[in-house]
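TASK: fixed-backbone design
INPUT:
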């Protein structure tokens, strides 16, 4: 007589998953606003401006600066994906961070095309401002956004299955995608309350863009290609006071200091 021992399901520590998610969301935001907009603006002629978690505000503006946030997110997403593919021997927490960071950046980058095309608001609305026929440019943005976002969703799904070894029907997949989504909305929403431009920016742009762009986390499991073979399953994400401590410190600075805005003024 032979018996089989049931393998207990892997468990993930909620606090650690939320901490990793917050760090990944902050990274995507800083790359978008700080590098893609503020740094690019300074390098191309801006003498001063105010940088916050939801916007870069300056008298100097250009199509390149408006497009910079998206372009930096897309470049970062691709580099993070390459880093993930090379991190086969890293811990489950590290690989999860790389995958979630990749997804945040790609969802931000591709989602903005569709957001601006539909609403005629935000970064890419500034890029196509004054370009005619305007309706055709908005339509093009929408089409590019749908195609690019779908590609990002597929890549995220493949990452969870192939790189983290989580099958599409595994209950862990739901937990490890809903927690990053909620964490990012709370983080951007909380920091956006203090932004120096006004609360209307939070309702008109920051929260809709965040909730919409990251919504792929809620449904991408339904579009994971059936032919993808799960990789070797990793251990669950265990409680890590290192991840939690670092995230707690950075979140406080992100919300209180960065959220209120940082004035950048260069000497003439």
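OUTPUT:
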């Amino acid at each position: 007589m032979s018996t089989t021992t049931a393998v207990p399901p892997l468990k993930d520590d909620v606090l650690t998953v939320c901490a990793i998610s917050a760090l990944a969301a902050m990274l995507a935001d800083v790359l978008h606003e700080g590098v893609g907009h503020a740094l690019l603006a300074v390098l191309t002629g801006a003498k001063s401006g105010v940088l916050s978690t939801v916007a870069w505000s300056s008298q100097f503006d250009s199509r390149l600066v408006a497009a910079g946030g998206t372009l930096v997110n897309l470049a970062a997403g691709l580099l993070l994906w390459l880093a993930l593919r090379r991190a086969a021997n890293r811990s489950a927490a590290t690989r999860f961070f790389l995958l979630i960071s990749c997804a945040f950046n790609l969802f931000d980058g591709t989602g903005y095309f569709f957001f601006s095309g539909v609403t005629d608001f935000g970064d890419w609305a500034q890029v196509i401002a004054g370009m005619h026929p305007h309706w055709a440019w908005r339509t093009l943005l929408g089409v590019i956004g749908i195609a690019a976002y779908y590609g990002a969703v597929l890549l995220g799904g493949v990452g969870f299955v192939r790189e983290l070894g989580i099958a599409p029907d595994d209950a862990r997949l739901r937990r490890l995608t809903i927690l990053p989504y909620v964490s990012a909305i709370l983080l951007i929403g909380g920091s956006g309350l203090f932004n120096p431009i006004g609360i209307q920016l939070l309702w008109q742009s920051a929260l809709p863009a965040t909730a919409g762009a990251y919504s792929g986390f809620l449904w991408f499991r339904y579009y994971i290609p059936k032919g993808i073979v799960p990789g070797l399953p990793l251990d669950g994400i265990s409680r890590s006071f290192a991840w939690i401590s670092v995230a707690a410190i950075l979140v406080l600075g992100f919300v209180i200091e960065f959220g209120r805005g940082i004035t950048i003024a260069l000497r003439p």
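COMMENT: Residues 14-265 form one domain.
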